[in-house]
Amino acid sequence: MSGAVIIGAGPGIGQAVARRFAREGLPIALIARSERTLRAAAEAVAPSGVPVVVLQADSADQAGLTAALDKAAGAHGVPDVVVYNAAIIRADAPGELSVRGHMEAWAVNVVGALNAAAHVAPAMAARGSGTFLVTGGMPEPKPEYVSLSLGKAGVRTLVTLLDQAYGPAGVHVASVTVAGPVAPGTDFDPDDIAEHYWRLHTQPRQEWEEEALHAGRSR
C-alpha cells in the first residue's frame, strides 16, 4: 500500500480521517499550513505505528502544495487515496465580504482541491486505481455563510468534472458532505464522519458513489 495523503490535517475531520486510514495500516502523509497542527495530527496518528510524514504547505499556494505532494509521493509512492479537507469556514452575509475575501475563500475551498487533483490523479489514472475525496458541506446554501455555500457548491461541480476526467481510468472521485457543525460526542462526531471516507475508498467500482451525506447519526 502506498498510503493516504490528508490535505488539511487539522483537529476534527482531518485528524479523524488520518487515524481511520492509519488503522488499516496505510502510511500517512499529513499536509497543513501550521507546524502546530501538523504536530498534533502526527501525535494523533502515532499510536497506529504506521509510517507518517508531515509536510507544511498552504493549500492556496499551488507551488507549495505541489511540492508537498511530491514529497509525499517520494516517501510513500503514488498515494492510494488523497483527502482534500482544507476550507475557510467563516460567517459572511451577502455583500459583507470583499472581492479579495471571496477570492481567498475560493482559492482554499475549491481551487486547492482542483490543483491537488490535477497533480496526483494522472499518476493514479496511469496506475489504474486511486481515490480522491473532498470534504463537502452546506447541502442547502445559507445566506449567513455565503462564501462557504459558494465554495461547497463549487466542490460538487469539481467532483463531477474530476470524475469525468479520471473516473474512466479507475480513479474514484467523491465528496463527503457534512450537514452540520463537527464536534466530538455529537451527531457530527468526526470519528463517525471518517467512516464515510473509508467506505468510499473501499467501494467496488460498480458501486462507486459521487457523494456521501452525513446528516447525523441514525436514530
Tell me the domain tally.
1
Shape: globular
* Tally of alpha and pi helices: 6
First-to-last CA distance: 36 Å
- Can you summarize the main beta sheet? 7 strands, parallel
Instruction: Give the beta-strand count.
Output: 7
Descriptive notes:
The chain is of the alpha/beta class. The chain has one domain (4-86, 117-214): 3-Layer(aba) Sandwich (Rossmann fold). The protein is built from 6 helices and 7 strands. It has a 7-stranded parallel beta sheet, with helices on both faces. The longest helix has 29 residues, at 99-127. The chain is globular, with a radius of gyration of 16 Å. It starts with a strand and ends in a 5-residue tail after the last strand.
Summarize the structure.
The chain is α/β, with parallel strands linked by helices and 219 residues long. Helix content is 46%, strand content 17%.
Task: Summarize the helices and strands and which ones pair or pack.
Blueprint: E1 4-7, H1 13-23, E2 28-32, H2 35-45, E3 52-56, H3 62-76, E4 81-84, H4 99-127, E5 130-137, H5 146-166, E6 171-178, H6 190-202, E7 211-214
Parallel strand pairs: 1-2, 1-4, 2-3, 4-5, 5-6, 6-7
List the main descriptive attributes of the protein structure presented here.
219 residues, 6 helices, globular, single chain, alpha/beta, Rossmann fold
